[in-house]
Specification:
Length: 171
């Protein structure tokens, strides 16, 4: 033990000096007054494959904070009636939501008439959500591919998250 004490002393002193030099500097603007956190975290939830289970969807929406994203297969058969029922559940929750279709939602080609554009972006602070419509078995069309290229340019300077129903290269 005697031959190791200089090494241990140097390590302890080094850690002490490092702590004093590199620790975050805390300034009290109003000594004695509690400083409140000013940055509220943004919480979003992603779910998929609800397949008309509006009862369970309602339960999940109650627990949602800022935003819910339903990433496809909202329905079983993609009928207008099914899509409208899911939309009604989402609207009644009063939670901000975004949807992107899944392969079940485009069978009857009614998704756009109920929910509008099938792909979109959402930006909050330094976060960009890119919702991609890859619901068709044939893959993405050239228009959406070009749109993705344009939307992803900003991803060099901000956090981007791509959300889609299936893996991008599915067959």
């Amino acid at each position: 033990m005697k031959k190791w004490w200089p090494v241990i002393l140097i390590v302890v002193l080094g850690l002490g000096v490092w702590w004093v030099v590199s620790r975050p500097k805390i300034e009290l603007l109003n000594p004695g007054k509690k400083v409140e956190e000013t940055v509220k975290p943004f919480i979003f939830v992603v779910m998929a494959d609800i397949h008309n289970d509006n009862k369970e969807l309602k339960k999940a929406l109650v627990k949602t904070k800022d935003l819910v994203i339903v990433a496809g297969d909202l329905t079983v058969n993609g009928t207008s009636k099914e899509l409208l029922e899911v939309k009604k559940t989402l609207d009644e929750s009063q939670v901000k939501y975004l949807v992107v279709p899944g392969n079940h939602d485009v069978i009857k080609k009614q998704f756009g008439s109920v929910f509008g554009q099938s792909y979109q972006t959402f930006i909050k602070d330094n976060l960009k959500l890119i919702l991609i419509d890859n619901s068709y078995w044939s893959g993405l069309d050239d228009i959406q591919k070009k749109w993705i290229e344009n939307e992803s340019q900003v991803c060099r300077v901000m956090l981007c998250v791509a959300i889609m129903h299936m893996p991008l290269e599915h067959s």
